[in-house]
Specification:
The complex is a heterodimer. By secondary structure, chain A is mostly helical. Chain A contains 19 helices and 4 strands. Chain A has a domain of 180 residues. In chain A, strands 1-2 form a two-stranded antiparallel sheet. A two-stranded antiparallel sheet of chain A has the order 3-4. The longest helix of chain A is centred in the C-terminal third of the chain and has 32 residues. Chain B is mainly alpha-helical. Chain B folds into 2 domains: 40 residues; 154 residues, no CATH class. Chain B has 6 helices and 5 strands, in the order ααββαβααββα. In chain B, the strands form 2 sheets. In chain B, strands 3-5-4 form a 3-stranded antiparallel sheet. In chain B, β1 and β2 form a beta hairpin. In chain B, α4 crosses α5. The N and C termini of chain B lie far apart (75 Å). The interface between A and B is large, with 131 and 109 residues.
Chain lengths: 563, 196
């Protein structure tokens, strides 16, 4: 049984690589194609003169911010007013202001933190025209920004980095939409509902009435997974059988989490003509992924203290998966839930196929640490690789210090400005997580949200601000919605999204202007195994050491506890 | 600035039309054409009415039926308000809930399974599922209940065990996921057996 579980994880890693490589080549083509298609030309005509021109990084960033702000306003209004609008067969009322605020920020920032249960809060209009649209658009914004950053790195002595509208359009129409249709059809085939009919009532075999929530689920789940969004249709997300019915649907949803982020590494390699370097980045990411999934699998299979103490059978066999089955589903078992918990926090996805609050100490430390790195282990669509660029700049800087010469990355000299931007990008969010956790744990208003008492209550708080600041969206779901936690969380999500994104664009602007210098004997090589070791080390020693004290107060302490 | 705002509004209108309306409408049309049963929630029928969904537990309690895993939803087994229990790994509440559930199972099953002790109960039987409506139980838990169901229904044990294996969903494509026994389908098969 252990063997079958590990086998599924290995199969997953192979399938990911096989699919991500060609997709990355295709995406490089999409973003570098010179000619606009018919619809693109139509848009630029409608948008007016100059709308399709190349932008410098400041103009690109301003466009991203204005676009996101307006989308936020409209989404907030839609949620508040849904009770008066169409496509509301279950007559749900407007969403309260704290939850609307948190939700609107949450979806615009690609976080999809959910302080609500979808099936009992959101009308079909809100799910489709509000949340599902944001799933596409917020993901595409991240992809567009990455395309611009990569383009900037590939340029020499250039003042511009691309055009936001073109990158946005191509991300949506050439990448997101076709992939969503493919994934959606597989999910429907496996049993995810896709209908405009409302709840249906069943008369059960024992004569009770049971209301079954349906709706246009599959179309939303496809993009929720692909766009590293993670906001479920149902409250329990992909643990719900109607959202994730089979082992195959689970495999496809899992692949969709990391597919685009993994492909973007190869896209980068092709666009900057540094394929070996891209392979090394992929290897470093994969190593961090493997450490996480291995730890989570071992911890969850071992089981939690509470369950071990109860005396029931936790041993894996051919007729049960055993282990810590609390808040997990039988059809996924331990291996698939441990794999999901790792993948969803390596990326900024945040969907879950089991309850994270019930994870063991070590099992819960994995997602917390993954998120805390800034989600650079494949990472969120777009934002993940940008985060890794910060670490790469720091890594070549460290290497430069060791050999005593100006660091270079892909032939570009890394100087004070780049180091500062990379440090800002890499360190701002982790610092914010620790500060916000401290505030939330030290105030009455913050403590009111805690569900489990004792050490685990601290872990819940840490997880909450870690997840929201890093735009993940998964939760130790016992942590409750108060007006404090919803608005504090909204601040975390907004800063966590836009500070690193702006730092990334500024870094891109700076790199685009540079000339490239030919590599010499003294240049630190970024296309060999030494670089992989250095990069993994930098991630672990930067983010890992920052989170370690907090981990010891929460999950580590809990892992050592006896009942 | 003003131009960027106008362009943003225009882009949002276009995105909403394509991704908010056209895309789900297309998927609904494809679904009802290609997979109508799945698209409407994998409903199961008996005597001409809907008795539930293959993908939602419904909380069997009668001794003649197989029982599902515990549920944390309100009320229990509510597919319209799914939820985790959210008890942490060292939670005294979790330890207590698991123990109580195990004792209840012992009381129910021990008369039909002489010698059954708490260590013979598989962990999925005493833990809430992720959704609260997990339609499956582990084969181990199904076989634990088989003797009771056979005795109450006056059926040979072999017949019940055969139905269990018929209603066990193996791994998808032989490798993905874990085997589970779909409780509603199994109970429906038992009731249908009685109709004949």
């Amino acid at each position: 049984m252990q063997f079958e579980g590990i086998g599924q994880i290995v199969l997953y890693a192979i399938a990911l690589l096989v699919l991500a490589y060609p997709l990355g080549q295709y995406m490089a083509w999409v973003y570098t194609r010179e000619k606009d298609d018919v619809i693109e030309r139509g848009f630029f005509r409608a948008f007016g003169r100059g709308s399709g021109d190349e932008q410098n990084w400041k103009s690109y960033a301003t466009t991203v911010l204005i676009f996101s702000l307006i989308f936020f306003g409209l989404l907030y209004a839609l949620l508040r007013l849904q009770g008066h609008l169409v496509l509301n067969p279950d007559h749900l009322p407007g969403v309260t202001w704290p939850v609307s605020l948190n939700t609107a920020v949450s979806f615009v920032t690609n976080t999809n933190w959910q302080y609500y249960g979808g099936e009992s809060t959101m009308s079909y209009l809100s799910q489709m025209a509000g949340l599902a649209v944001q799933n596409f658009v917020s993901a595409a914004v991240g992809m567009a920004v990455l395309a611009a950053v990569v383009r900037a790195i590939s340029r020499r002595s250039s003042g511009t980095i691309g055009n936001f509208w073109r990158d946005l359009y191509r991300s949506l129409v050439y990448i997101m939409l076709p992939l969503s249709v493919i994934v959606g059809i597989i999910l429907i085939w496996q049993g995810v509902p896709e209908t405009f009919n409302g709840h249906t009532t069943a008369l059960t075999l024992q004569g009770a009435h049971q209301s079954i929530a349906r709706g246009p689920v599959a179309s939303q789940i496809a993009i929720k997974q692909l766009g590293t969004n993670g906001g479920g249709y149902y409250n329990s997300n992909s643990a719900v059988p109607l959202e994730n019915p089979t082992g195959l649907s689970n495999f496809v949803e899992l692949l969709a989490i990391l597919l685009i982020p993994a492909a973007q590494v190869f896209m980068f390699g092709r666009m900057v003509k540094a394929r070996r370097h891209a392979w090394m980045i992929y290897t470093a990411m994969f190593a961090l992924f493997a450490i996480g999934v291995g730890t989570a699998l071992a911890a969850e299979q071992h089981g939690s203290q509470a369950l071990r103490q109860s005396g029931v059978s936790l041993a894996a066999s051919s007729s049960q998966s055993g282990g810590n089955m609390a808040d997990k589903e039988v059809r996924f078992g331990i291996a698939n839930t441990a794999l999901w918990a790792t993948a969803t926090t390596d990326a900024s996805n945040g969907s879950v196929n089991g309850g994270h609050d019930a994870l063991t100490g070590a099992g819960g430390a994995v997602p917390i640490t993954n998120m805390f790195t800034g989600e650079v282990i494949f990472g969120g669509v777009g934002t993940g690789l940008i985060g890794m660029f910060f670490y790469i700049v720091i890594a070549v800087f460290v290497a430069g210090l060791m050999v005593g010469r100006t660091p270079e990355w892909l032939g570009k000299k890394i100087q004070a400005r780049e180091i500062k931007l990379a440090a800002l990008g890499a360190l701002f969010v982790p610092t914010m997580v620790l500060v916000m956790t401290a505030v939330a744990i030290g105030t009455k208003a913050g403590q009111a949200s805690i569900f489990n008492s004792g050490v685990h209550g601290f872990s819940e708080t840490l997880y909450t601000y870690d997840s929201q600041s890093n735009n993940n969206g998964s939760a130790f779901a016992g942590y409750g919605a108060t007006s404090f936690s919803t608005s504090f969380g909204a601040v975390a999500m907004a800063f966590g999204r836009f500070v690193p994104m702006l730092a990334g664009l500024a870094l891109a602007g700076s790199l685009a202007q540079k000339k490239t210098v030919p590599a010499s004997a003294g240049t630190f090589r970024t296309d060999g195994p030494t670089f992989v070791v250095l990069l993994v080390g930098v991630v672990l020693f930067t983010a890992g050491l920052m989170i370690l004290p907090a981990l010891s107060l929460g999950p580590i302490a809990e892992g050592l506890m006896h009942l | 600035m003003t131009r960027t705002i106008l362009r943003s509004v225009l882009a949002i209108v276009a995105c909403t039309a394509v991704f908010g309306l056209a895309y789900p409408a297309l998927m609904v049309a494809l679904a009802s054409g290609a997979f109508p049963s799945q698209a409407h929630g994998s409903l199961l029928y008996h005597d001409g009415h809907v008795v539930g969904s293959k993908l939602a537990a419904q909380g069997f309690t009668g001794p003649q039926y197989f029982h599902e895993r515990p549920s944390a939803t309100t009320p229990a087994y509510n597919p319209a308000a799914t939820t985790f229990a959210n008890y942490g790994p060292t939670s005294p509440d979790l330890a207590k809930a698991a123990r109580q559930q195990a004792e209840a199972i012992l009381k129910l099953e021990a008369p039909y399974n002489p010698g059954l002790t708490i260590s013979g109960i598989p962990v999925d039987a005493v833990t809430t599922s992720g959704s609260g409506v997990d339609p499956d139980i582990s084969p181990a838990y199904a076989h634990l209940q088989a003797r009771r169901v056979a005795a109450v229904r006056h059926l040979p044990l072999a017949t019940v065990q055969k139905l269990i294996s018929q209603n066990t969903t193996g791994r998808s494509l032989g490798v993905l996921g874990e085997p589970g026994v779909n409780v509603l389908e199994l109970n429906l098969a038992l009731d249908t057996l009685g109709d004949k």
